[in-house]
Structures are given as structure tokens and as C-alpha cells.
Amino acid sequence: MGLMNYLRNRAGVVIIVFIGFAIFAFLLGDVISYGTPFWARHQNQVGSINGEAIDINEFNAQVEQTSEMFRQQMGGGTLNPQMRSWAVQQVWGQYLNRELLKSEVERIGLSVGKTELNDLVQGDNPSMQIQQAFRDPQTGQFDRGQLTGFISQVGALPQGHEAHGQWEALLQSVIDERLSTKYTNLINNSIYITSLEATAEYTNRNKLANFEYVLLDYDSVPDSAVTITEQDYKDYYNENKGVFKNPEETRSLAFVVFDASPTAQDTAAVRTAIEELKAQLSETTTDSLFAAVNSDTKYPFIFRKQGEFSPALDTLLFNVPVGTTVGPVLANGRFEIGKVVETKVGPDSVKASHILLNPAAEGGMDRAKAKADSIKGLIENGENFAALAIQFSTDEGSKINGGDLGTFGRGMMIPAFENAAFDAKRGDVVVVTTQFGIHIIKVEDQIGSSRVVKAAIVDKQITSGKETTSAAYAKASEFFGAANQNNFQETAAQQGLSVLKAEDVTAMETMLMGTEVPRELVRWAFDADRNEVTDRIYETDDKFIVAQLTGIRKKGQLPLEAVKSEIEGVVRSRVKGKKLIAQAQEASNGANSLAQIAQKLGKSPTLAENIVFSNPVIPGVAQENAVVGTVFGLQPKQPSKPIRGSQGVYVVEVTGFVNPEAPADLDAQKRQLMQSLAQRTWSLVFRALQDQAKIVDNRAQFF
Is 606 left (phi over 0), alpha (psi -120 to 50) or beta? Predict the structure, then answer.
């Protein structure tokens, strides 16, 4: 009884303690479950769009694919950080497009029914994706029989077979494309242009105004003659508040760059080194191995046609006999030498299909080769290559197309694969082993014929020597040791250094004022406090950088204090404008013409001719929207009130208008405006959807 009475008396305390313990346990469980939830819960997420998380592994795989596409478009080589950043931005944009469209399609209830999907796949006019996936390798045309055969084969395969997944992925892509088309058509069908709008647009582009003006330039008033008050700033800020919305968080930096670019002595040293390598390359009998070991760039040891080497080296290689070593030549900041190993006449490009076998999955290399030989035999005996590719190939990218690789030129495939495809004849089926596995290649066609050269290429990048790098680093260290948040500018001036300034730096930036900077520096800027100096000297290939964070701009509406320095010039002009407007008004009192006003101001009227409303530029002055807009609202021979423009205060007087003839075809005018508006529709809709979406962007943590 004693215990029960105690519990009754202390029930409130017990319950509170129990609830407190439960909350603590819940939070502790959250920490254990998710791992540091306060800053690392989303450590594997690049971001999220309307609640849909984007996994870093999936995102990075697409970035790598896009980067490789960029690299091939640039002719190979290493992508610079700027190109890598573009790849990241492009993939992010694709995710945004897909997820924003998905949310909108679901919201308004758009769908693709079974009958509609069947028509998109097997109807009279299938989706272009279907047509491209099932085209005849010989003709390049859509092969309906190949599609039907594939569907039958997939239907006969057991559930869970990878071909089912590939088919479902293709169908989903067709559905997504159809939904996008429906949504775009829905938006475009809501656009219309009235006859009044078409007529107004035509008039704005064709009605001519001739007028005279007197300009009182802001520069005619000395800066010392005006005083800017806090109210002047507030008035301008409040009138233009919408302009000062920051779409994303940014930083401002002051930074000093210490150049460690190669000197003439460094260039001479690299040339001496490449000359020594040239002598060795001329003597060696293992050309490809020598090039692979000694070259900065690992060029593939393959045949190339003229125009595929660097220009200077290209000219030399195609004009010397086999065994000759040429160079060095200077190309893109590097010295190159080359030795002609072999030359012949061969095709320019090849159209081929392949089946890829994975030796590990086949139980070893010997079994994989035996299986490849068996498949080759089946093909040579008339079996359908596309069907065998769908059944056996492990290349996910090509098997959906029956192994079709399309047409490719030299340098687009790995050397072993390329040599096999280009050395075979049209119609041949060959087996070749590469680092990806065992390929059964069918050469569908060979196009063109040119002389080609196989050459061992060795290059050496012109880089800074130790002496150059050490001297630049010593200067950077001296500045870094002396500078702090209170004396950054003064220390730079004392040491004779130039301070550069970068405004509105975004979290994904790779360049500051045209200077390539490491991503770590930008990440530091987004973690630092205002006026803080970098925690270390940041390095690129040929530069050392020390920076100070000078400003932080949060996303959203910027306060007046954040933009005060930016608007100071225009606010000063507005204050000057008040004085000039008063002068113009005084001169206008009792005046009946612009000539009289000009005389009082000690000015002469200037004539502006053939001005149109849609292009509000006063020749020789500037774009003056307010002035030209006022002109088209005036009656001739009547001087205007003073107008505050971008360059000064104007008084204008229309001398006459030239009205255009009525449009010959108003419907054509309307169609033109509709087309123009339709071209901008998706970008406008996308911007609106993006503004309304819940977007979390963590890219800066990973890239």
C-alpha cells in the first residue's frame, strides 16, 4: 500500500520524467538511425525536388556520362573544371525538368492509357524512340518486324530477366515523352493573340516619330553640389524593390593571385627534355610502350586519318616515310613528337553491331571465348544477330537496339575494338577481347577510304619549374602571414599587390573574374564569416590565391544596406535630376515651344528622326525608355514636361509622326506573334514551376 500511495502522490512527476525520457530516447534513436541528423542526414543526397531525393551515386553516374560526351566533342583530353561544372549544371537541369514536369502532370491528371501506349509502340506512327530503337542496320529505317520479334522474345523470357527491365525502361521513356508533349500542347493551346494586340505590336514596330529634344546631362551637376539623404536611398529602393531579390545565396570576395605560370626558362627546360626523348624514340623498337611510359597524354595507339593529330604534327606525320620521328612542335601549351610506325589506306568510319560477354559471368575466359565462337558460328549460319544480342549481350546500352552501335569514326572506340572493326571487311563477324570483355562484332558497313597513319606520340606539358613555383609561393606566404581581416587591402598595397574583386559568386562557381579557382576555395567562402581571410593558401596548376570574404547575400529579398553601394550612382543621378527638373520647369514657364525653353537654358534643340516605340534608342545618346514612351503619347508642336531619363533630364517636342499602312495580313501578324510566344512558353512555365517548387540543392557539397 505504501508503494501505491507514493506513486499516486508522485504520478505527475513520474509521467513528466517518463515523457522526458521517451523524447530523449526518440531523439537518440534518430541520431543512431540516421547518423548525425543535424548536418549529415542527407550526406548521400545531391538535393531534392518537391520531396524527391536525388542520390549522389545516380547523379554522379549521369555527370560522368555527360562529361564523357563533352570530352568527345572536344576531341579527347582532360576536361577543365569549367566544363565539368557545365556537365553538373546540365544534369541538374535535367532532374529539374523531369521532376517539375512530373509533379505538374500528376497535379492536373494527365496520363497515357493502355490503348494510347499500344498505339505509340505498335501503331501506324510509333514513337520516334521506338523507331530509333528498332531500325534496320542496313537501311537505317524503322523495322517493324524487328520490333514484333523483340516483343515476342521478351514475352517468352522468364520474369526478372534483364530484357524485361530494359523494355519497361523504354516504355517509361515513351510515356514520359508523350506526357511532356501533352503538357506542352496544353499550355500552347491556351495562348492566343487578339487583333488589337497584333495591331498594337505592328504599330509599335512601324510607326515613326520625329522629335526635338533638349538634354540637361546629369554630369553637368558636380557631385559636390548634391547631398544624398537616407530618404533618397529608401525612395529608390522602395520603388524598385522587386529588382533586389536574390535568386540564390551568393558571396563577394576580394582576392590576390600569385602567378606561377611557366617562364621562358621553364619552356626551354621542357624543350630540352623532349629533344632527349625524341632521340630515344627514334632508336626504340617498342614504340607504343615507349610512348605510353613517357607521354603526359596517353594517346591511343591506333590508325588516324589526316586532320586528327594536332595541326603542326599532322602536317609532318603525313609527309615522311615509316620509321621517321618528327618534332618537336608546340601545340596547346605542350611540346609534341611523333614516330610514324605504319601507314595504309583504310575506311573512314564503320557501321557495326556487337554482343558483349562478361568472362566472370561465363565462368572464366576460356568458357567465354568458347561461347563467343559458338555465337559467331550461329551468326555466320544465318541466325538473327539482333535476337542473339538481346539474349546474350551484357552491354545494356546497345542490346536494346539489337547490339547496334551505329556508325563511328576512328578514335571513338578503344584501340583493340577499333582495330578489329576497321581491319575487317564488310559483312565479317570477328571476335576480340578488350578490358570490357569479349566482343562478337559484325561489320555492317565501311564508309569512305583515306590514307591513315599509326604513330607513337609523346608530349610534354610546359609546366613551371621548382624555382618558379617556389618564388610565387614565397610571395603568397609572405602576404598570407601578414594579412588579416582588418588589414587585407592595406597589406596588399604595401606589398605592391593587386586586389581583385568578385561579386555575386554562386556556390557552384569555378571562376572568379576569369581566374580559375579550386572548388575548395568557393566552399570555404560559403562557410566563412564576413571579412574572414582564407584559412590557407589555395592552389591551382599555376596560381596561388589568398582571399577575403567581403560580403554575404542570402537568398530572397535583399535589405537596403546590402545594395546601398550598388545603387549609389543612380540615386545620386536622381538627386541631381531634381535640380535639373527644377531648372527645366523654370525655363518652361511662359514658353510655348521647345525653342524658347532651349534659349532660356542656353541650349540648342537636337533632332531625332525615325524613332520607333519598340526600339527606344536616341541616336548618339542612349536607350531612353521613359523619353521615347513619352514622345509617343504627345501631340505635335507641344513641348513636354521635364522627363527624367537615364542620361539626364529631357524636354521634348514632337515634330511629326509617320503612320504605317494597315498590315496587309493581320492573321499572319497574329500567327507570327503566337509562334514567338510559343517558343518562350516552356521557359516561362519552367521558371514559374521552379519558383513554386521546394528545391534543396546540395551540389556544392559534392562538386
Answer: beta
